[in-house]
Specification:
mainly alpha, globular
């Protein structure tokens, strides 16, 4: 159990860098995700050939992984869209509503009773998000994208809980990221009709940051997150990921000085979100001990 929590929080720390990198990389959010998943899938193929842990021979049981991969791809597109149409802090805080969506989705997908405490904690997170949005009226499109991203993140995490007992983490990572890349390839022409781009090729600096994003913040973080699901509930994983804004916003403060744009309501909201993570982590720890 302790190892699972360590794996989870390393994954969250790595994920905290994605927002900063999303603003740093200049290409459109759809292309950013396309390149991110492409490099990640190639890395996993190489790892699979070396370690023999990835099943490269396709089987019909892998089809649900491809569907989940497309949900992940859409989540990332809306996540980076949220950052690019607002800022890193707003985009990351939108992600905090994942706990609310998870408390609603998980009981239906996993066929368990609704936990009222989880619902209350999820609502508390939404209250924190509302307080933070109080200062962000100019970022409406970014906020909408962020909420959509959060819903999709909660959905794919819950669905992944169904997959962890059927396949090893390496195989899940490969077919979800690879499948997400393939399905996103067909989706992007539609997306570009609404959000056109001027160039399809990244610059050299963009390319270098995309590789960092793919290897560390995608392949490594994704694998650790899936491994943690073997011991921890999807709700706890999703709620713990509310710490991602804490890490990411701290980096945004240091690098982009976004703290100049934030008021006192932002810090009250962050305090509420952080408290809900501590409460649910403690509840999960007590249940498993």
């Amino acid at each position: 159990m302790k190892k699972a929590f360590v794996q989870l929080h390393i994954a969250i720390l790595l994920a905290g860098f994605t927002g900063v990198l999303g603003r740093l990389i200049s290409i459109n959010e759809g292309l950013l995700v396309w390149y991110r998943m492409f490099f990640a899938a190639i890395t996993l193929v190489i790892m699979g050939l070396i370690t023999k842990k990835v099943s490269l021979r396709f089987h019909k049981s892998f089809f649900p992984l491809i569907v989940i991969g497309f949900i992940i791809a859409l989540h990332w597109v809306f996540f980076y869209g949220s950052i690019k149409y607002s800022n890193v802090s707003v985009g990351l805080v939108c992600f905090s509503s994942i706990g609310f969506f998870s408390s609603v989705i998980e009981p239906f997908v996993l066929k368990r009773r609704i936990d009222l405490i989880e619902v209350v904690l999820g609502i508390a997170v939404m209250l924190g998000v509302y307080m933070i949005f109080h200062f962000a009226n100019d970022y409406k499109l970014g906020i909408v994208f962020g909420i959509i991203s959060s819903f999709l993140a909660a959905l794919f995490t819950v669905l992944n809980k169904l997959m962890v007992g059927k396949h090893n983490p390496e195989t899940i990572s490969f077919y979800e990221l690879g499948g997400g890349w393939v399905t996103l390839t067909f989706f992007l022409p539609v997306y570009f009709q609404f959000f056109p781009v001027e160039t399809y090729l990244p610059t050299i600096p963009d390319l270098l940051w995309l590789i960092v994003l793919s290897l560390f913040c995608t392949v490594l973080a994704f694998n650790l997150s899936i491994r943690s699901l073997q011991k921890i509930s999807p709700f706890t994983v999703n709620l713990s990921y509310n710490l991602e804004p804490v890490y990411g916003i701290a980096l945004a403060f240091l690098i982009y000085e976004e703290h100049r744009e934030l008021g006192i309501s932002f810090y009250f909201g962050m305090a509420i979100i952080f408290l809900t993570v501590l409460v649910q982590t403690f509840r999960s720890w007590v249940k498993k001990s």
